[in-house]
Amino acid sequence: MKMLLLLFLVPTAVLGQCLTSEDSKLIDPAWPILYKGQQLFSLNMLNIANNVTPSENILFSPFSVYNALILAYFTANNHTEQVLKKALYIPPSQSKDSTMKAYALQKRLRAPNNGSSEFELLSANRLFVSNKLTVRQCMLDLFKEEIVNTDFAGDPKAALKMINDWVAEKTKDQIKNLLSPEQVNEATQLVLANAAYFKGWWKSKFQPESTSKELFYISNSQNAFVMMMKQKSTFNHLVSEKLNAHVLELPYKGDEISLIILLPPFASPNGVTNILRRLKTHPDLNKMINEEMMQRPVEVSIPKFSIEQELQLLPILNSMDIGELFTSSADLSGLTGHPELKLDDIVHKAKITLDEEGTTASAATAIFNFRSSRPLDPAKFICNHPFVYILFDKKTSTLLFTGIYYKPPPS
Fold it and tell me: How far apart (Å, rounded) are the C-alpha atoms in residues 56 and 407?
């Protein structure tokens, strides 16, 4: 049986008939624990992604991937459920019922802010289910807002177009043709789809007339020109000995979401890798932003760029001990009551644009199967060499998008 999986948000209700007695043990409050789990998962994934693809630009939405895997966790049973629970940093004592309710709350907190003049943060999911697949009634009730009855067998081309059009719509046409005809055909039984979109305007804008062409030092022996945006304003700033990095917070209007940039010392060997390793050891971004950083005037220079990337997640997830999800031994019987559904692969696409006005970012995830100069002065923050960046939701402590800028992307 063929199953295709794209992912994002989560259920809005919990029904006992989908759960065991152990699943139903409620531990409150669950949602702070899960937000911490998301952060730990995100930092671990970023560190491993850098190890798998060293010295290459990286961009992905760990929030999208995490919720993709959480959705798989909701349909998983037995050993597969335990593997996902551990990888997603869900405490052993926390029940599936509690996890589902926590994500129901998260979904309400992330209701689209249509019409806001401060920022746009949109997220949605759909379960495109074959009309030949019998889904358990409790799961139908659980995902009643998301399930779409789909005729894969009768018209796979129309089904593919419907899914890709939905992703494009939710990401404001930033992610197009997420899935290919090879990934959706007559054998497809299920597509769990998610889409994420963010557009924010800087609280303190960069002026276009200040942008100029400057050198970016990719390594000690390689450099390239970039369009460097500049401004001097008051920002949260930190010289962190724990991370061996200069840290800057660039807030968007509304003060709920910020771009966090972590910059290693200039010409530091393995500077980005060292930051990621230390960040994994000291993962409390909330404490760093809210307690350790100080407001001060800072001269900022950061490249203006746009990156679109399809990240091959399978080798990364294998390194995160989630490989069982993509083997014949995986048990995803929670959806249908039968263990015949299997996963073969996962694909993720993301896009981000930084310019003088602000940032636009979007992402979608799919799991599917077939059967500067050195900143000696802390008041200067010059991103003219590789750096780490995180689009951070301060309200929920969530890493929405993460990336590593090693070199200017192709024009």
Answer: 8
